[in-house]
Amino acid sequence: xxxxxxxxxxxxxxxxxxxxxxxxxxxxxxxxxxxxxxxxxxxxxxxxxxxxxxxxxxxxxxxxxxxxxxxxxxxxxxxxxxxxxxxxxxxxxxxxxxxxxxxxxxxxxxxxxxxxxxxxxxxxxxxxxxxxxxxxxxxxxxxxxxxxxxxxxxxxxxxxxxxxxxxxxxxxxxxxxxxxxxxxxxxxxxxxxxxxxxxxxxxxxxxxxxxxxxxxxxxxxxxxxxxxxxxxxxxxxxxxxxxxxxxxxxxxxxxxxxxxxxxxxxxxxxxxxxxxxxxxxxxxxxxxxxxxxxxxxxxxxxxxxxxxxxxxxxxxxxxxxxxxxxxxxxxxxxxxxxxxxxxxxxxxxxxxxxxxxxxxxxxxxxxxxxxxxxxxxxxxxxxxxxxxxxxxxxxxxxxxxxxxxxxxxxxxxxxxxxxxxxxxxxxxxxxxxxxxxxxxxxxxxxxxxxxxxxx
Length: 455
Description:
Elements: E1 2-11, E2 17-26, E3 39-42, E4 49-50, H1 53-56, E5 66-71, E6 75-76, E7 82-92, E8 97-107, E9 119-122, E10 128-130, H2 133-136, E11 146-151, E12 155-157, E13 162-172, E14 177-187, E15 192-199, E16 203-204, E17 215-218, E18 221-222, E19 225-232, E20 236-243, E21 261-262, E22 268-278, E23 283-294, E24 302-307, E25 322-327, H3 331-335, E26 341-342, E27 369-372, E28 376-381, E29 389-395, E30 401-407, E31 412-419, E32 425-427, E33 434-442, E34 445-453
Parallel strand pairs: 3-8, 9-14, 17-23
Antiparallel strand pairs: 1-2, 4-6, 5-7, 7-8, 10-12, 11-13, 13-14, 15-19, 16-18, 19-21, 20-22, 22-23, 24-25, 24-26, 27-28, 28-29, 29-32, 30-31, 30-33, 33-34
């Protein structure tokens, strides 16, 4: 390349010659052949991707050789994700240049780093608690930036007490997703309740009607009873009382208190249900059935009593029985008889309430408790008990029974299914000392009784 001297020699046919000199200038005006290829590059952990000229060169060449390759754009940050045009400039050894264009695809394939922490929440008085992503996120990060944080569960109620697994989903600005797990501890208490019937201290004739506190005999004994509810696990915040009998709620002294007084006017079975909410907003319900029997003999001032002249334990409904109309003052003497009880003989009048508890052969009170609606009645004795108790059912339905025993925390302790309702069922031997709720279900009907194991 450049100026090159040359000598021209001229020779004639006789061998004579002469010479002259000249300069020949050689130049390269042909540009190099630039050949590009498309490439894909990845953002690194710092959110930067780099491309070099050699990466996009695809065999560029020149007859005199290539002196240099250069790209007009080599560094790509997070906002460059996608397809970018890059120009490759090829310079040959003689300074001739040519260019080609490459499509550089910038990708972010690095997942965000998801970091979680556990959280603890306490139920409020409405029975709910909530969390946000800030409560669970523990410094999640990404090589570019985080677009969103989301939780699969943010609200909790009484059914969620204890440990709850939640998942935090972290999404970066380029659509990459990662997750981490945490535990949310929900603080609260599930209440349980029971109802005790406390007969009034004022009465007609005498306070003793036979020792069954869930019976009211219109015309004799206490004419009202206090339904004393007791709740465990938490502090009671509200009460609501309902009754299966349309005449029931209207005869309560209050429907939003802990211990309403029930003063009936009409006989029947009254199942009262208390719905109690504790300070954590968790709800429990419990029921009691009060049996009201009208034993008044019109306006005579006398009352009816079932008298068994030859009654012996156990008192059989087939024993000889006379329904007597006697003065209130004569009741106490008859109550001392083995099988006599307030009300009517079996099949005479309307015998709704269970006969009073009597004394067994060992002289110990049977301590019977019974509840029911006349069609489905459950009876347990003795209660309290030291070793075992007996459960019997009288029902117009022949379906088998399902029996469940719960402790005061609502935990299922014992369960039996497919039990024949005509069977004398013995329970309680495996129970520890304490208070329990016995739930007896037949078809769509359920009765709940409170029992106490004393030893």
